[in-house]
Amino acid sequence: MGLTDYCECRFSAGNGGNGIIAWRREAHYDKGGPGGGNGGNGGNVVLQADHNCDSLFFLKNKKHLFAESGGNGKPDLAHGKNGEDLVIKVPVGTTVRDLDTNQILMDFVHDQQSFILCYGGKGGKGNAAFKSPIMRAPNLYENGDKGQSLHVSLEIKYLANVGIVGFPNTGKSTLISKLSNAKPKIANYRFTTLVPVLGVVKHNDQSLVFADIPGLIENASEGSGLGHYFLRHIERCEILIHLISLDPVDHDDPCQAYEQIMRELSKYSQLLVKKKMLVVANKTDVDLDGTRFQKLAQYLENKGIPLFKISALKQELGDLVAQVFALHQKTLAQFGANKFHLPMEMEKHYVFEQASETDHDPLNIERDALGRWHVECKRLHYWFDKIPQTTLDNIRRLGNKIKEVGIEDQLKVAGAKKGDVIVFAGQEFVIND
User: Fold this and answer.
1) 390 is in an annotated binding site
2) Is 173 flagged in the annotation as binding?
3) Is 146 annotated as a binding residue?
4) Residue 215 is labelled as binding a ligand
5) Class of CATH domain 364-430
6) Extents of the domains making up the chain
7) Is 210 marked as a binding-site residue?
8) Which residues contact 256 (CB under 8 A, 6 or more apart)?
9) 308 carries a ligand binding annotation
10) Does the annotation list 143 as a binding residue?
């Protein structure tokens, strides 16, 4: 199974079942009466974070997934069966985005965190539900509501406290392998690491998750190479280690290397360059006379930025680890005990808009070149879908709903007259009075 950390899919909740018209025929109910049951509710689409799940591979080739629809009502007052929920398990760290609005719907940061992505439709009423002292034998029933449907992207952004960033071949993989029990592929050529590698680093009875972010290249923020693919994994990190190689084979100028990486981070998101960051010079064992380190240290000192030096190969890492954990403690004091800080856009709340019986949106009336009146109204659409025009009682009920919306009065104000044609929901109607 390959590692898949991005996919797009449409999810649809189940439709509500339809109510029915039926009449009681039991021996002990000689007067009969309405007996049509209600439709069952449609199943929801539920996403749930699971720490045992580490990939979106199972969704990679799925274009459209459906929850079960509710069953139709039955005779003898029997209701339809509710549809089963469709429960999709996703890795912790998955972000869900609505592709139509580009809005983040959910960010899973805890194991077993769940979210109803699409709500199932409510079941329609059968004629038994309309029985009253005034209407003892109603020929009324309803269709079930449609389930919600969304086209979304699912994207894993790895949950790490510390992200190690830099150009390819700066020693990031070597560093994380010496700090933790991670086993990245290490070789002396560019682009050895193609996916982020996570490792747990312990210090004084504390532990942090470090991530080796694959090497960035120039214009990574614009998608060059696998730029966007790599940069998005940095968004959750609270601390960044900016690793710069002192080996002249890797960079002509370490100062220029620093600026290029900072430029790519800034172009991708200003939030990245505002993160707490340690700039670290690696491969000091190659810089024998120390001139390249001194040049970089002086350059950063002029900017008020301290520079740490290490040799990951020789495991000279004690001071760096202590500095990272000290910085982490300052972060905890500032933000509290939350390990992972969500993007600011997650403060917004997602609200799904669909037609309902309580909608009071404005009525839109326009006249075409043929003199027909085109009417648009979300609430009216709801009732046209809800009430089948198959019985006289249903047609009268739909007529009452149209009057409640006030369509007749607004058509008169717009200039409509007797005999004019009204177009709504793909149907044509003639004004009779």
Assistant:
1) no
2) yes
3) no
4) yes
5) alpha beta
6) 1-156, 162-339, 364-430
7) no
8) none
9) no
10) no
Q: What is the CATH number of domain 1-156?
A: 2.70.210.12
Give tens-digit pLDDT for 159-205.
788 999 988 888 888 888 888 866 655 444 444 455 678 888 988 88
- Residue 174 assigned as binding residue: no
Query: Does 193 carry a binding-site annotation?
Result: yes
Longest CA–CA separation in the chain, Å: 107
- Assigned token pair, 176: 């994380």
Residues in the chain: 433
Top-confidence range, 211-220, 309-318, 413-422: 413-422
CA distance linking residue 78 with residue 39, whole number of Å: 9
Q: Is 365 annotated as a binding residue?
A: no
Q: What is the pTM of this model?
A: 0.73
Q: Is 182 annotated as a binding residue?
A: no
Beta-bridge partners for 411: none
DSSP secondary structure of 185-251? ---SSTT---S-EEEEEEETTEEEEEEEPPPP-TTGGGTSTTHHHHHGGGTT-SEEEEEEE--TTT-
**CA torsion through residues 407, 411, 417, 423, sign:** negative
In this structure, what DSSP letter does residue 311 have? -
DSSP class per residue in 369-397:
TTSPEEEE-HHHHHHHHHS-TTSHHHHHH
Is 211 in contact with 196 (CB distance < 8 Å)?
yes
Is 311 annotated to bind a ligand? Reply is: yes
CA dist 13 and 15 (Å) reads: 7
Report the share of the chain in percent with pLDDT over 90. Answer: 47
Record the tokens describing residue 419, joined without a space. Answer: 């005999």
Residue 96 exposure: Cα atoms within 13 Å on the Cβ side: 26
Q: What is the DSSP secondary structure assignment for residue 146, as one 8-state letter? A: P
Spatial separation of the C-alpha atoms in residues 129 and 120, rounded to whole Å: 21
Q: Is 331 annotated as a binding residue?
A: no
Are 215 and 244 within 8 A, CB to CB?
no
Contact 411, 365 (CB under 8 A): yes
- Tokens 């696998």 sit at which residue? 226
According to DSSP, the β-strands at 421-424 and 427-430 are antiparallel
Q: Which homologous superfamily does the CATH classification assign to the domain defined by 162-339? A: P-loop containing nucleotide triphosphate hydrolases (3.40.50.300)
Our CA angle for 296, 292, 197, nearest 5°, is 75
